Amino acid sequence: MVNMVRLMQNEHLKTYRRPGTWVMIGILLLVSIAFGFLYQMEHEGAAGDWRAGLEKQNRQDEKTLQNENLNQMTRANVEERYQINQYRLDHNMPPAAGNLWGMMSETAALMSLVTLFTIIVSATSVAGEFSQGTIKLLLIRPASRAKILLAKYLSSFGLALTLLVLAFTFSFITGLILFGNEGWETPHLYVQGGQVHEQSMLLHVIGLYGLKGVDLLMMTTFAFMISVVFRSSALAIGLALFLMFTGSNVVMMLAALGYDWVKYILFANTDLSPYFSGRPLVEGMTLSFSVTVLAVYFLLFNAISWLVFHKRDVAA
Amino acid sequence: MEKQPVLEIRQLTKEIGKKTIVEDLSLQVQPGEVFGFLGPNGAGKTTTIRMLVGLMSITRGKVLIQGIDLEEHFEKAIAHVGAIVENPELYPFLTGYQNLLHYWRMSRSIPKDRIDEVVQRVGLEQRIHHKVKTYSLGMRQRLGLAQALLHSPSLLILDEPTNGLDPAGIRDFRNQLRTWAREENLSVLVSSHLLSEVELMCDRVAVIQQGKLIDVKQVRELVDDTDEEQTFLLDVHPSLQALTQLQKRFPHREVEIIDNRIQLPLQRSEVPELSAWMVQQEIQIYTIQPVTRTLEDRFLQLTGGSQLG
Ligand SMILES: Nc1ncnc2c1ncn2[C@@H]1O[C@H](COP(=O)(O)OP(=O)(O)OP(=O)(O)O)[C@@H](O)[C@H]1O
Ligand SMILES: [Mg+2]
């Protein structure tokens, strides 16, 4: 009967009064800014004549495509690149390298850091209550355990959203300062059904961040479950990170070995980008298949957290 | 009509695995009563209390708080309860006030001023805006009490609340508990293995051992239980003369003199007569004092003198 908003305010209070949270925010901001400078260093002097570069690349690609023994995957990728390059040359659209958008597409990697921090915060928010013994005074209130757990879960994502917005904003501002608004209007190009399409760069970059959000959602939910079940934040953080960094490689290896069942593994489905540009991991996998698999894992993780938390005898 | 008990426990049982930790426990706590819950280490006091506040599931039996079934209507029932289970663990990285604010947000329809009110009540005004990690144990206990009183509960459940307090702290706490019980119209269930504690604090006391209820008694009843013989100390003058005379009067009793005082077993009812007699014998009486027959003695007797912490 206690209002959900108040429970979330409480979680918010606890999260932001922990010194660790501010250290994480600080690190994220520093990395966002540093990322911009690194990107600038990498692309310095590489500007040159973009037309000459693309033409040279296309001549190479033409040769590659003449090779009969080329495997299907590579052929498709090269063909796509060739098509887009040609489109750029025809429409006088320089690629987004060494400008604001080029940088922003790369900084989507910051999402891994956001995911890492969200995992830490969500795992600590449950396991911390147990290890500090505060769980006792928390659960003897007129709020059901389900509500308390939900408040914790949702506030973890509240923090994730804050971190995400901070990372995005800071790298955007860094990008503007370093590269100005050159190439602002240039659209993102992608190939679909043999045709080159244009898309707003801003939307494209937001999409890149968004796709990484799948990892964030699933791994945080996973870490949350582990921390509820084992009441140990270290275990939850360690396991979630280990799986996050090795999971996709293992899955790729298994797929390369031709195992078909690999498509039911969570990590075969967390990266949705192949459905928008590229090829799926296993032939025949579709966006709706992956979304379904993700939904099943999501519900499973949450159901386990809820059941265990609901039933648990608190005897710490 | 009898008043509805604030807390009613009916045949409460807790089994963990094959082990029965609390067995068939039934008792009632009446409005305004300070009820002691006494038992040696491992008797099952904490386990019972954990069930009363919903931290542990109930294997069998019922808990009614203000007549509301705890298991069926947890949120409604628990709203009447303030509790500290074992140590009051609060958030060390928050201030005392932030801790209370946190619990205030989890209670229903309590005005915010109530936070200041309870802070005053437990005497923590000076330090309430400091971080809890800088608090002494006594201050933490006080803050623990503040959070338990915050939502004006009708039942206060305290598990060994004086653990770790110094003698002055214990005395303060005892006095305050009585005051609060009166002023806030509280019933209190307080567990302890410190028997002298319960004796001074409580109206009634339940003695449990190995998860079973052994006895529920009025403290007074438990202490000076009828007219059993007990040891009295007599400070009289001249003592040696008194000794011989008393030995003559009670030839079958063990009358001794220790530290210039006479020690002898007596029934309470014999005391007035004895003192009158001594006056007649021109013995000067300074004090006649029972070597207090404490709850501890009774308790040891009830529990068969089992090991105590
Ligand atoms: N989770 C558990 N699993 C198994 N046994 C348990 C569990 N919790 C408590 N016990 C056992 O139940 C018994 C009662 O423990 P409890 O903590 O309730 O005792 P207590 O009366 O509070 O003792 P103390 O005075 O030492 O605080 C003990 O023998 C203890 O070992
Ligand atoms: Mg105990």
From TrEMBL, chain A:
Q: Where are its TM segments located?
A: 21-41, 108-128, 149-179, 216-243, 287-309
Which UniProt keywords are present, listed alphabetically? Membrane, Transmembrane, Transmembrane helix
Signal sequence span is none
**GO MF annotations in UniProt:** ABC-type transporter activity
What superkingdom heads the lineage? Bacteria
Instruction: Give the CC-aspect GO terms.
Output: plasma membrane
One Pfam annotation reads: ABC2_membrane_2
Q: What is this protein called?
A: ABC-2 type transport system permease protein
Q: Which organism is it from?
A: Melghirimyces thermohalophilus
UniProtKB/TrEMBL annotation, chain B:
| Membrane-spanning intervals of the chain | none
- One Pfam family name is ABC_tran
InterPro entries the UniProt entry points to: AAA+_ATPase, ABC_transporter-like_ATP-bd, ABC_transporter-like_CS, P-loop_NTPase
Keyword Ribosomal protein in the entry? The reply is: no
- Give GO terms: molecular function aspect only: ATP binding; ATP hydrolysis activity
Q: Which residues form the signal peptide?
A: none
Q: Where is the ABC transporter domain?
A: 7-235
UniProt-recorded name of the protein: ABC-2 type transport system ATP-binding protein
Native source organism of the sequence: Melghirimyces thermohalophilus
